[in-house]
Amino acid sequence: MKIRTKIFLILFPITISIIAIGIGRMMISPTDILKILLGDMSVDKASRLVVINMRIPRIFLALLAGAGLSVAGLCFQALFSNPLATPDTVGVASGASFGAVIAILFSFNSLMTQVFSIFVGIIAVFVTWMVAKSKNMNVSFLVLSGIMVGSVFNALISLVKYVADTETKLPEITYWLMGNLGVSNYKNLYIGAPIIIISIFFVYLMRWRLNLLSLTEEEIISQGINIKMLRVSIITLATMMTASIISMCGQVGWVGLIVPHICKMKIGNNHSKLVPFCISIGASFMVIVDTMARSLIAKEIPISIITALLGAPFFIYLLQDMKRRSV
Amino acid sequence: MSDTRVLKVNDLSFSYDNKKYLFKNLNFDIKEGECVAILGPNGSGKTTLLKVLMGMLKGEGDIFLFDENINYISGRNFWQKVSFVPQQRNVESDMTVYDSIMVGRSCYIGVFDKPRKIDFDECDRIINELCIEKLKYRNCKTLSGGELQLVLIARALVSNPKILILDEPESGLDFRNQLVILDVIERLKKKNIVSIFNTHYPKHALQKADKTIMLGGSEVIYGKTEEVIVEKNIEKIFGIRAVINEIEVDGEKIKNVVPLYVVSKN
After folding, report:
1. Is the CB of B113 inside 8 Å of chain A's CB atoms?
2. Which of B33, B27, B30 is nearest to B13 (CA)?
3. Nearest CA to A277 among A292, A267, A286?
4. What are the residues whose beta carbons fall under 8 Å from the beta carbon of B214, sequence distance 6 or more?
5. Can you say whether the dihedral through the CA atoms of B63, B64, B65, B68 is positive or negative?
């Protein structure tokens, strides 16, 4: 990768973030933001409090969530050699959501919510894996069993909503499921961020290997690669970041589909380049979408509404494009 | 051709259900630089034999690679010496030709590593050797069958193997491309690389291979190509009457197999 590209990939999300910190009900100029970030006390206290206690953790969470969901989407697409695969396809999203919903129902703290979310997320993938497992792993089997597992967990989520207290818990769960980055505070971040950062870091290190996943079973074995280990590690890493993000921000759909595809259209299918692009573009995309969510209208819009409004048309476009290419 | 023994197969048998054996008690040696063809009708176990030789399927008996039993060689070590070229029609790749060839270096690239200078150099070298510079930046999806087969061979050769195993390398290709591929296989002899390929065309085996394995039913015939591919054996294995003739072109004798008619249902 050229130096210029590398600098762009680093500076792009930083610039977007600094602009986004200033946008909101209280508008703050970029110069003031830089002053606050550099520890200059001359800026008024209200601005400082808003930036440090509210905007920064929120933007940080958006950066992590965007990068994580995009990389996870990219991983699942490579794993299942299916351009339409996302964390939802393998049941991870529903599983992790169910774990988090249970935690909300019993008013667990944020650490337990994380643990529950990751735990059930991994169970969901594991079940999907076991159902689909056959002598030669068939891709359509995997996707189908993922959809089944996903619908079971969605049914369980409905069950929890049905029994939840309609005054307090039901609105909380419903609102949480729509996706919301408003929960961001430093305490949540301290727990979730390391999981997401470490998972992304390992995928980043293994990025060249992701290229191998699109080959047939025989081809991968004949490269001297332990295919099981490779698959298990990528699935585990992708699941960990997805579940951790979901437990903090709820179900933010479509990001794992949109971002990897935009990157693939621009730079092709080499994962050595795709992974850094997905991290940078995904993080920036999420910051932009979240800023829209909290500042378009006076009341905050759940983020998944915006991602779905952007994502569904994009999905249709992808399908049309695939149709055109296969003709 | 030197006398170093590369592959030795002892009493190799294989069956999918423990009842009907595809081949039984197969014994052969392959020396450095030899070209071996595997011939037989559909379903006779040609591809299965290749997979057993590569350890992807487990048969009874022993296979030795440079006098080491392949059951005890680590995957990485094994695949640095052996390379596999799958059938071009089974391969779907969305990468560029260059990235695709780089995949062949996997056994030299660590889990957390990226390709290094030596890997890029090797890729450039093999692209040069096979004269596919023009294809370098094309997407594999846009290649013709012949071009893709060349790229797959390049991907297999880029790891500098001692044995190249090809699954029906020339099937589904036109006249010219069949020749291009067979010439590449023939050139491997000079570099002391063993090539093992299965084929539907007795003619190709006759023209290129030093030794031939003929599979059919439970019958296995193995030996020097000109001794194995004879009219009698073709009738026995394929159930057809064929004649083998010889034509002289520029002082060189070239053998050809002409199938005549079906003798029995096989």
Report:
1. yes
2. B27
3. A267
4. B39, B40, B220, B221, B222, B228, B229, B233, B237
5. positive
Inter-chain touch A216–B79, beta carbons under 8 Å = no
Tell me the nearest-neighbour CA distance from A205 into chain B, angstroms: 5
Given 3.20.20.70, 3.40.50.300, 2.40.160.20, 1.10.8.590, which CATH number is that of B5-229?
3.40.50.300
Beta bridge partners, B245, equal B256
Question: What is the C-alpha separation between B212 and B225, in angstroms, rounded?
Answer: 5
pLDDT in tens, A201-226: 999 999 999 999 888 888 888 998 88
How confident is residue A38, by pLDDT bands cut at 50, 70 and 90? confident
Q: How far is B76 from chain A (nearest CA, A)?
A: 5
pLDDT at A24: 86
Would you tell me how many other CB atoms lie within 10 Å of the CB of residue B253?
A: 8
Question: Does residue B110 have a pLDDT over 70?
Answer: yes
| 8 Å CB contact of A216 and B90 | yes
- Pair B139, B96: CB distance under 8 Å: yes
Q: Which two tokens stand for residue A8?
A: 């762009």
Residue A169's CB: how many other CB atoms inside 10 A? 18
B6-39 residues labelled b (16+ CB within 10 A) or e (exposed): bbbbeebbbbeeeeebbbbebeeebbbbbbbbbb
pLDDT over threshold 60, residue B176: yes
Phi, psi of B109 (to 5 degrees): -110, 125
For the record, the structure tokens of B53 come out as 């030789």
* Rounded-to-integer distance, Cα B224 and Cα B212, Å: 6
Interface A:B, Cβ pairs < 8 A: 69
What residue ranges of chain B are covered by domains with CATH 3.40.50.300? Answer: 5-229
**What does the block give as tokens for A227?**
């295919």
Superfamily of domain A3-318: ABC transporter involved in vitamin B12 uptake, BtuC (1.10.3470.10)
